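BUG: 3D viewer hangs when loading the predicted structure for this chain

Environment: internal workstation, default settings.
Expected: structure renders.
Actual: progress bar stalls at 90%.

Input used:
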Amino acid sequence: MNHGRRSIGTCMLCAAWLLATAAFGAQAQLTALVAVEPTAKKAANTILRSAAESGLAKAAGQAVTVTTSEDLSDVMRATRSAGFDIFIGPPQVAASALQRGYELVGATQKSDKYLLVGVQQVDAVAAMKGRRLYLPQQDSVYTYMARGMLNEAGLSFQDLRSVQYEKFPQAGLTALTLGSADATVVREDEWAEWSAAHPKTARVLATSQPVPGGFSVVVKKDLPADTRNKLAQWFGTSSANVGLPAVAVRPENTEYKRLAELGLFTPSSLPGVNRVSAKEARDLLARGATLVDTRTEKEYKAKRIRGAVFAAYVEKSLKDVAFNAAQDDFAALDKVPQLDKGKPVIFACNGAECWKSYKAAKVAAGKGFTSVYWLRGGLPEWDENGLPTEGG
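Structure tokens produced before the viewer hung:
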């Protein structure tokens, strides 16, 4: 008898679940990504994912799936392919998304400045030539700021003796005291606290312009206006209930634009390779050229230029003109049967911020391909011109 009651109860729960699923299923499910900067991991751990899903779903009136990631390279790829409806993350993530069909909701903290600091023997940014720099992972905001401050002094990462990538930016200050690095990048507030406890250990070499602080939130512009408004209201008033500080700061768009411009953009040209526009690439394809998509398999399957062949460029080297191709894996190039070294081949990826096609084109030219083209604008430029795609 008790077993019968449990069965009836279970059936009732199933029915309720089906009704709820049907109600949510009437509208497409929204997706959100929480991107975690290594230095903000502690803050990110306070975000309750299931509670965030529930709160966002209640606000939007439809189901929401929340994903978290500490791999900023993957996160930046997701912004370039518009892979989520909502991005919650450090400012460089928002800066990238704002260029690709998203709008700003706001930030959780006031803007801050970043400092390039070096040991006492280094008295200026220009003196960093041939020196050692400590940074977090390549797509960290600290790395963006370092590149910008070096560029202002006429230096690039290739001018340095070494760039050491680790997870935690504060450890860079320890590296200075241990003599294992000559410079690092820290936030202004981090420096104020550390320098007070370690006087005359290091000095400030350069100071950045203000950068949005904490988490920034962006949403897709093509979501219904009512949904966007409800989400913005939730982030501004109720997100603290799930461990995310209220999005109460509205940084200037110029701060995000400036940050995006400090990002790892590919050069505008590549010696020995012909840079082409999307329309020029279309014409080359019509005359028999092969277009190679160097992105991940997941991105290729989701959406690609019509007729593109897949050959992933697995990138581990610096996003720099002086990258070390030996650190990367482009074995896929030799496995594409229709490629002929004497015929035109075009390399493409996710646009000007994506280095895979730049590196692939340079590697191909070095392997003896005689007619190499580079579609710097990649899939985004192809899309903007209304040219045909496939996949998905």
